Amino acid sequence: AQSVTQPDIHITVSEGASLELRCNYSYGATPYLFWYVQSPGQGLQLLLKYFSGDTLVQGIKGFEAEFKRSQSSFNLRKPSVHWSDAAEYFCAVVYIQGAQKLVFGQGTRLTINP
Amino acid sequence: NAGVMQNPRHLVRRRGQEARLRCSPMKGHSHVYWYRQLPEEGLKFMVYLQKENIIDESGMPKERFSAEFPKEGPSILRIQQVVRGDSAAYFCASSPPSMNEQFFGPGTRLTVL
After folding, report:
1. A46/B contact by beta carbon, under 8 A
2. Which of A21, A101, A104 would you mutate first to test chain B, the one with the most B CBs within 10 A?
3. Please, which residues bridge with residue B21 across strands?
4. CB B95 to CB A90 under 8 A?
5. Which residues contact A3 (CB under 8 A, 6 or more apart)?
6. C-alpha distances in Å from residue B30, one per residue of A8, A113, B27
7. CA–CA separation, A64 and A78 (whole Å)
8. Strand pairing class (B19-24; B5-7)
9. Does residue A33 contact residue A96 with C-beta atoms inside 8 Å?
10. Segment 89-108 of chain A within 8 Å of chain B by CB
11. Would you say residue A97 has pLDDT above 70?
12. Which residues of B touch A92 (CB under 8 A)?
């Protein structure tokens, strides 16, 4: 079955520290890959996306993600986090061969220590 | 260009009542998707609609749930005879044709008493 795994349910980092959130997907072919951020009580905002081409993708708010086909991964990174980055982060994929629906991971809650 | 609009933002219903959730897609977007987010979980796909057509309803519960996207007006997600387990945040997303990126609304938070 098509699935997306975010192994870390909750991560705490100090302000100014680097961040990496993990995402793995299960599928033979390359899907379209997304990272969304959700602040409490809010909708989802797209951080970045990968469709094809350069495997290192730059997004908004200083985030980047790297697609690694050999590992079926699309990890999100930020060199230095800010207190305002505290939120829930969701990795999602669209499997090209299927319907146009997003399959989401369970999410990673990010807490920032001052 | 206004974003995806959803109303109401919060909806409280008693068990057995009906819930109607509305979604107005972004201008120029003819594809609408509904997702449900249960507490402490990720979003789960429910249904994908184009104007007057249901394209994929593989995520919709078999009973009590229905969705439509009429030629005119917003998309409606309807839940009949709500139960406590329906309490969740319901998100709508829209996209233009031939585009894989979906734009999300702020969600409707349904509470069933």
Report:
1. yes
2. A101
3. B77
4. no
5. A25, A26, A103
6. 36, 43, 8
7. 6
8. antiparallel
9. no
10. 90, 92, 94, 99-107
11. no
12. 43
Q: Does A55 lie at the interface with B, CB-CB under 8 angstroms?
A: no
Measured between CB atoms, which of A90, A102, A107 is closest to B102? A102
Q: Give the CA diameter of chain A.
A: 44
Yes or no: say if A12 and A111 are a contact pair by the CB < 8 Å rule: yes
Low-confidence ranges of chain B (pLDDT < 70): 1
Nearest to B42 among A43, A49, A107 (CB): A107
Instruction: Give the pLDDT band (50/70/90) at residue A51.
Output: confident
Q: Are B87 and B68 in contact (CB under 8 A)?
A: no
**What confidence category does residue A28 fall into, taking pLDDT thresholds of 50, 70 and 90?**
low
**Could B104 and A36 be called an inter-chain contact, meaning their C-beta atoms sit closer than 8 Å?**
yes
The set of residues, in sequence order, having a beta carbon less than 8 Å from that of A54 and lying 6+ positions away, is: none
B108 contacts B7 by C-beta, under 8 angstroms? yes
pLDDT recorded at residue A99: 60
Name the β-bridge partners of A4: A25
Nearest CB to A90: which of B4, B42, B103? B42
Q: Which residues contact B68 (CB under 8 A, 6 or more apart)?
A: B49, B54, B75, B76, B78
